[in-house]
């Protein structure tokens, strides 16, 4: 009771405190300030936890939800690194300075400066390392993903390289081993602590501990149609979703389970068993951590938040050793678009898309000393990862600075969720802005405008149609135009994104498709589900390293005159004139060059040279180069940089002059 009273007084004092900046007062109140535990999982679907409809056993998280509250409309940014930036800074990713965080302070810096001991374990995925951004302690990998049993070379312990043991290692477990070790240390400091655990699970590669896999093997033979229906029924039964909600139907790019070959069904059911095992393990480790807080008498006044960075991942890259169990570092399986559809139920689309399937996350808050809501409450008000940092600043009574050494700070966009913790309404003046790469969205009250990969805006009323089935764009053109305009203004003025990021939308190419969604035409036992030509004939030129990820060409230039080349353009493209279009993101401004030839024997850069300007940008710029010839093109070379640096090229297309796509790379 004493804690509760102090808590109320503290919460009421938060705004006054921010004005006065009285850190000394906060420090004097340390015994009343809560500890803070933020857990983020990687690529977990909206329905993947028991308390969000799943059949996967997640008793520890279900218990936190039963004793706390959970959100039905909590949004992330639909992608890994951008969600991490937003979670840590309270800003939209591009505004914060993207992975460099140069326009932001992190929650670790704010809370450390406010007197907290700050700890992190798990995936970082941003520049530098956590100990450079306010974390007193860090264990984990700086990379976006790694082998669960073998890790990778990016592991760090408190700023120093850390060698992954050769056996008895699994990242999900190691993250909690180190979290518990850091907490012991924190308790000796007598400061309140802030722990951020960033699980890499259940991100690919799909790899599970043998005992966890054994528990789920054989449970998914009935397939995704049946599993999804059962999850949706449970979501309605527990009151997470309205009874009247119409689930999105199975899209045309996913076959009915019963129509699959036996080999495909076998592989797919094992893939889902692996995902379930990985999620179950996250829950077991959360349980181990919560038990430690309980034993230490800290559970009552620790604010726990659990979220996912994006929806389930549909990108089906390379899988190997399909005949083995996925229970060692030798086996590496990729995600399944079919299961991603089921796991994001009842919504449409996936990781990276700003539709509800991409951006909706389970979000559980547990804090007996701080929540005024009834245990197990479901909050239907929309919230976003951008709100987390202001919330942590408020409950820790730590001021968010206006200036910070070596950063040019931009304002925080999120709002504190404390009113929700107190059973009240949020006061949010601006709509929630949504953008990753070309995928766009804006959530304003009951309305949402959304664009699939830069294609025509769609408009939905979320109060009636959260599954985005009834596009009202044609019925409400004025409303949609106003929302698109507001999205554009926010992208330009609040995010400071480059012009290409908010260029006009393109006509929709329906049905929507993505080259990395599972190709169900290919036998999974054959070579693994992958396109036969992974690069589409593109090669990296000298001084150039090229990685293809999410259909983007990620280029690193190590010397003079780098670029990419396409040596064989097939005769099926026909005669010109042509237009080459792509989106470009680079930090280096300069002169781009495109070379082409109409003679098969010619070696570029002989041939014709066309220049185009390259801006330095944090987002995308649109590049368009016309090739005014009336015969056939044989080779193409594109240089976007004159020397060292990095660039990403997306959506590279050779078109005819009417804009029709002749070739899309990769
Ligand atoms: Ca992710």
Characterize the biggest β-sheet: 11 strands, mixed
Percent helix range: 25-40%
What would you call the shape? globular
H/I helix tally: 14
The rounded Rg comes to 25 Å
Q: List bound small molecules.
A: calcium ion
CATH class of the largest domain: Alpha Beta
**Mean pLDDT across every amino acid position:** 92
CATH superfamily of the largest domain: Alkaline Phosphatase, subunit A
CATH architecture title of the largest domain: 3-Layer(aba) Sandwich
Structural class determined from secondary elements: alpha+beta
Number of strands: 26
**First-last Cα distance:** 62 Å
**Spans where pLDDT lies below 50 across 5 or more residues:** 1-9, 12-28, 527-534
Strand content: 15-25%
What does this structure look like?
Helices cover 25% and strands 22% of the residues. With 666 residues, the chain is of the alpha+beta class. It folds into two domains: 2-425, 3-Layer(aba) Sandwich (Alkaline Phosphatase, subunit A); 538-665, Galactose-binding domain-like (Jelly Rolls). Strands 1, 2, 3, 4, 5, 6, 7, 8, 9, 10 and 11 form an eleven-stranded mixed beta sheet that branches. Strands 17, 18, 20, 23, 25 and 26 form a six-stranded antiparallel beta sheet that branches. A five-stranded antiparallel beta sheet has the order 16-19-24-21-22, with no helix packed on it. It is globular. The structure holds calcium ion.
């Amino acid at each position: 009771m004493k804690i509760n009273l102090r808590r109320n007084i503290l919460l009421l004092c938060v705004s006054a405190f921010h004005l006065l900046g009285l850190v000394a007062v906060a420090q004097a109140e340390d015994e009343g300030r809560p500890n803070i535990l933020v857990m983020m999982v990687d690529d977990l679907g909206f329905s993947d936890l028991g308390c969000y409809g799943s059949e996967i056993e997640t008793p520890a998280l279900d218990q936190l939800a039963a004793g706390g509250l959970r959100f039905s409309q909590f949004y992330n940014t639909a992608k890994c690194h951008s969600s991490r930036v937003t979670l840590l800074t309270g800003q939209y990713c591009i505004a914060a300075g993207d992975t460099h965080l140069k326009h932001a302070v992190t929650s670790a810096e704010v809370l450390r400066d406010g007197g907290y001991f700050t700890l992190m374990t798990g995936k970082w995925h941003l520049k530098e390392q956590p100990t450079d951004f306010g974390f007193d302690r860090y264990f984990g990998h700086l990379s976006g993903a790694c082998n669960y049993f073998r890790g990778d070379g990016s592991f760090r312990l408190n700023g120093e390289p850390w060698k992954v043991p050769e056996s008895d290692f699994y990242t999900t477990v190691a993250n909690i081993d180190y979290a518990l070790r850091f907490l012991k240390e924190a308790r000796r400091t007598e400061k309140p602590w802030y722990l951020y655990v960033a699980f890499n699970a259940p991100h690919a590669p799909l790899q599970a501990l043998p005992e966890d896999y054994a528990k789920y093997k054989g449970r998914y033979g009935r397939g995704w149609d049946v599993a999804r229906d059962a999850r949706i029924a449970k979501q309605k039964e527990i009151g997470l979703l309205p009874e009247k909600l119409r689930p999105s139907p199975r899209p045309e790019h996913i076959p009915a389970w019963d129509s699959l070959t036996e080999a495909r069904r076998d592989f797919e059911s094992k893939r889902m068993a692996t995902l379930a095992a990985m999620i179950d393990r996250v829950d077991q480790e959360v349980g181990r951590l919560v038990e430690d807080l309980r034993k230490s008498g800290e559970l009552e006044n620790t604010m726990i938040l659990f979220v996912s960075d994006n929806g389930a991942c549909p990108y089906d890259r390379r899988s190997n050793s399909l005949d083995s169990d996925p229970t060692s570092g030798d086996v590496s399986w990729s995600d399944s678009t079919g299961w991603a559809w089921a796991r994001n139920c009842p919504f449409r689309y996936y990781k990276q898309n700003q539709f509800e399937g991409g951006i909706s996350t389970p979000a559980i808050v547990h804090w007996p000393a701080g929540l005024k809501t009834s245990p197990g409450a479901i909050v239907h008000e929309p919230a976003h990862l951008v709100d987390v940092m202001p919330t942590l600043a408020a409950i820790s009574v730590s001021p968010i600075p206006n200036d910070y050494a070596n950063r040019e700070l931009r304002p925080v966009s999120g709002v504190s969720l404390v009113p929700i913790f107190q059973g009240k309404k949020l006061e949010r003046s601006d709509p929630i802005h949504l953008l990753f790469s070309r995928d766009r969205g804006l959530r304003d009250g009951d309305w949402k405008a959304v664009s699939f990969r830069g294609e025509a805006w769609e408009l939905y009323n979320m109060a009636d149609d959260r599954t985005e089935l009834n596009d009202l764009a044609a019925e409400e053109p004025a409303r949609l135009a106003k929302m698109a305009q507001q999205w554009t203004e926010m992208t330009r003025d609040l995010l400071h994104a480059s012009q290409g990021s908010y260029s006009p939308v393109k006509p929709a190419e329906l049905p929507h498709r993505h080259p990395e969604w599972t190709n169900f035409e290919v036998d999974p036992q054959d070579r693994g589900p992958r396109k036969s030509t992974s690069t589409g004939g593109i090669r990296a030129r000298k001084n150039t390293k090229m990685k293809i990820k999410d259909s983007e060409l990620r280029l690193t230039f190590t010397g003079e005159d780098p670029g990419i080349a396409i040596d064989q353009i097939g005769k099926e493209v026909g005669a010109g004139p042509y237009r080459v279009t792509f989106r470009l993101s680079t930090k280096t401004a300069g002169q781009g060059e495109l070379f082409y030839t109409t003679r098969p024997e010619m070696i570029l850069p002989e041939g014709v040279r066309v220049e185009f300007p390259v801006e330095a940008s944090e987002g995308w710029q649109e590049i368009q180069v016309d090739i005014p010839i009336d015969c056939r093109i044989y080779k193409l070379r594109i240089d976007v940089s004159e020397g060292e640096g990095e660039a990403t090229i997306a959506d590279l297309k050779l078109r005819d002059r009417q804009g029709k796509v002749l070739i899309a790379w990769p």
